[in-house]
Amino acid sequence: MQQWHAMSPKEAAAQLKTDPVRGLSPGEARARLEEYGPNRLEQTGGRSLLQRLWEQLKDPMILVLLVAAALSWLASGGEDLLDAVIILVIVLVNGAISIVQESNAEKALEALREMAAPQASVLRGGRLCRIDAALLVPGDLICLEAGDLVPADVRLVEAAGLRADESAITGESVPVEKRAEVTLAGDTPLGDRVNLLIGSTVVTGGRGTALVVETGMRTEVGRIAALLQNQEQGETPLQRKMGEISKSLSFLCVAACAVMFGVGLLQGKELLSMFLIAVSLAVAAIPEGLPAIVTIVLALGVQRMAGQHAIVKKLPAVETLGCASVVYSDKTGTLTKNQMTVTQIWTASGKGEQLALSIGALCSDSVPRPDGTFSGDPTENAIVAAAQSRGIRKQELEAEFPRRAELPFDADRKLMSTIHPSPAGGYRVMVKGAPDLLLRRCTFCLDRGVRPLDEGARVTAETANRLMAGQALRVIGVAYRELERIPGQLTPETVERELIFVGLIGMMDPPRPEVREAVAVCRHAGIRPVMITGDHKLTAVAVAKELDIYRDGSTALTGAELDFMPQELLEEQVNRCAVYARVTPEHKLRIVQALQKQGEIVAMTGDGVNDAPALKAADIGCAMGVTGTDVAKGAADMVLTDDNFSTIVSAVAQGRGIYANIRKAIHYLLSCNIGEIFTIFIATVCNFHQTPLVPVQLLWLNLVTDSLPALALGVEPVEAGVMDQPPRSGKEPLFTGPFAFQLVWQGLMVGLVTLAAYFLGEYVLSDPGEAYQAANTMAFATLTLCQLFHAFDVRSDRASLLQIGILSNPAMNRAFLIGLLLQLSVLLLPPLQAVFSVVPLSPGEWAAVLVLSLMPLPICEGVKGMQRRQRAERAPARPGAGK
């Protein structure tokens, strides 16, 4: 890639084989258009609906469900399609939801294409004409003025007071002064290339001519588009964990079928009967409703978060937030207001603030709007806003002291002067600009009256300037001079001399007031905040210190330092760095990827075009909804509608709560399914002459009774203290040792309770002639009701039911009542009794069923109570406790 900033305009024109005065001829422009192609971003071909559907069907959990549908049909002897149809509907609904969420990268690229300037003023053969920006080619000579959107990457040939807003590309918070005559070193960072204009940035002031050097996908915006195209979206932690479940369940299904079938054959049982039972058991091992439950739980979480100013575009991103261990935030517009604000005013007398602001307001082109905002350069807007806040209204000043003449700002002298009628008679020159250059033109200062600017006063002013600059303030000096008449020739030599120095105005893009508290909450929750910006290192570190992002022992790196740092070294240092400054999109990608390699879950917030590739690469990308560009919103997983960094904190809390709820649903479903498997397995191994549950009962349990309580668990309120815990590792398996043990022992409990009901029905409570039918009905009723009661104690792993409130989850109450009503209808209504092979029970049998069904509540609550006592005994005493 050519280093155009390292060439003079003459060298660049020679390299491009163009005339730097007349531009390309029309014929040469047409030939180059054929060679280089249109000045637009490439569009990648989107996948067809069938391709997207195939991607969904390849998901391991979906494949397991499709197998379950086939097995369910086989279990009915090929006659009952209802269960298979239900499973297929679940698959299709999940696929449809996922496909709808899939167009984010295409939207990001479309937003980049829309940023291209529709028209450009170009010199072709010495004639100025307006053409579509798509027709520009390298070597074209274009003309630019204030308000123009830069149509391509260009090398300036001439510039008069030209400034450009590059915040969307580089993160620079103030317009950059551009200079055509300078030639820069080859390794100059993108944000410091003052002789170039970047495509899709905006000219905020001045005018200039420039050579088009790169078009289309070869521009800086084109490189960002290529990064978006090439950046693959990794799996979320939840997707990885669902893959684990799929593999585990697949193995369990195959093992169940093989063991049951083999044992049955060894015992001499009927081949078809054993096959149907084995298939039914395999279906029972698969929680068919789990993908739908996870999707619904995530969707409900999305609805709650939308009410808290966070719009989630990709459902799995909700859960990923709960894993976030590092939050990378852009500075401009995310941690700060993206609005320059005057924070300090220094004057030699200590009392000249009003005069300093009046000079700054009159010597500016900022225009107040009726809505209270300002149009113009952000630095001038800040001065006029500060003046207005002190009762100095620019409109009134200009009405009393109208502008009679001016010397516009230019990048060489770094000053601007305007001439107005003076309150003392005659005229007054108002001057503002770079303090060091302004002081050279001052011979007096205002300090309890006008007095000569001696060496002591000059040193005092220079020291004040250095101190303010050391606080990352943008410092503007102001001065004035009295004139009897306006000079005939307006030049810096005739106007900007023998000035009276008044003072310094310091300004910055200040931090949002709520961000410091949000940073503190992040740290308390074990989440490390990091600033990543295109702004200068000094400015970035100053803001980071104020927000407590940069602490003692923290480091800060610049893009130039990253260029010479191998990726391996970056991976070693990435956990110590709190600020990255003057970075490019490629740097941001490297930083995110380095941290991900350390096993961290990275959340990235941002609003500019330059943030888009990193937003997409991060585990969770958060774009700003108000100030954010469409490109950033398209690449992100979540959009913060209030542009508030603190919103991400509440989103993390919701993410942690949602993951806990999904885990509870999995806990409930799998512990219940283990109980079903254990019941059939024991019956088969012990050679019961009849199985406790018939295939249709297993399918009823699995497809109907399990689903409603699992859904209710998914909408449990976020438990207290969720932000007092460190983030869980994205590599942490779902089936940790304690969790797997909990599933197994509770599943065995459910199975033993069911077998106890079967034993009582067959050998104790029932008449000999009806023993099997009654035993089967008791086992079926006990297993169903036991699962419904078990859902209540799964609501919290730690707190007791009394602590969280037995009826505090209305969804669980409704799920229990509906499940109870459905099961009682099967057990009590004669038409359904025949379908499900059940018989009426006696009062004694019903009493046994009820007692056994309630057993999980006291057992699980007792275990949780013992665990709470053990944790309390192990916990160290808190400092100051008891004082």
Blueprint (SSEs and pairs):
Elements: H1 9-16, H2 26-36, H3 49-57, H4 60-75, H5 82-100, H6 104-114, E1 119-124, E2 127-132, E3 141-145, E4 153-165, H7 167-170, E5 176-177, E6 196-197, E7 202-214, H8 220-230, H9 237-266, H10 271-285, H11 290-306, E8 310-312, H12 316-321, E9 326-329, H13 331-335, E10 341-347, H14 353-362, E11 367-368, E12 374-375, H15 378-389, H16 394-400, E13 405-407, E14 415-421, E15 427-433, H17 435-440, E16 442-446, E17 450-452, H18 455-470, E18 474-483, H19 492-495, E19 499-508, H20 515-524, E20 528-532, H21 537-546, E21 555-558, H22 559-563, H23 567-573, E22 577-581, H24 585-597, E23 602-606, H25 612-617, E24 620-624, H26 630-635, E25 638-640, H27 647-685, H28 695-705, H29 707-714, H30 737-765, H31 771-793, H32 801-804, H33 810-828, H34 830-835, H35 843-854, H36 856-874
Parallel strand pairs: 9-20, 9-23, 16-19, 20-22, 21-22, 23-24, 24-25
Antiparallel strand pairs: 1-2, 1-3, 3-7, 4-5, 4-6, 4-7, 8-25, 10-19, 11-12, 13-14, 14-15, 15-18, 16-17, 18-19
Helix pairs in contact: 3-5, 4-5, 4-10, 6-8, 9-10, 9-27, 10-27, 10-28, 11-27, 11-29, 14-15, 23-24, 27-29, 27-30, 27-31, 29-33, 30-31, 30-35, 31-33, 31-35, 31-36
